[in-house]
Write a structure and sequence with these properties.
The protein is of the alpha+beta class. Helix content is 67%, strand content 12%. The chain is rod-shaped, with a radius of gyration of 17 Å.
């Protein structure tokens, strides 16, 4: 599995750098992270609704959390594939 080093760049935008020196856009990982954060937020909201006995609202939020988790998985898989492509190009 490739290892990453975070490398902020003021000119070209932020990038992740593989330990072998290959660079890849931060965007591929950022989308996954955003969906992970949204899933976590929806899980917390669902728990609050369930705690108040608002089970229909809790179920809606749980469904949103599941959708965000699925999107996060897709973006993570895509980012991993792109990382592997960058790693093998060097």
């Amino acid at each position: 599995m490739p290892m990453f080093t975070y490398c902020p760049s003021q000119i070209a935008g932020e990038r992740l750098v593989l330990t072998n020196g290959a660079k890849m856009p931060k965007e591929t990982h950022t989308k996954a992270a955003e969906h992970h954060e949204n899933a976590a937020k929806a899980h917390r909201t669902a728990a609050e609704h369930h705690g108040k006995g608002e089970h229909d609202k809790g179920h809606e939020e749980s469904t949103k959390a599941h959708e965000h988790s699925a999107q996060a998985h897709r973006h993570s898989t895509d980012a991993h594939g792109k990382s592997e492509q960058h790693r093998t190009k060097r």
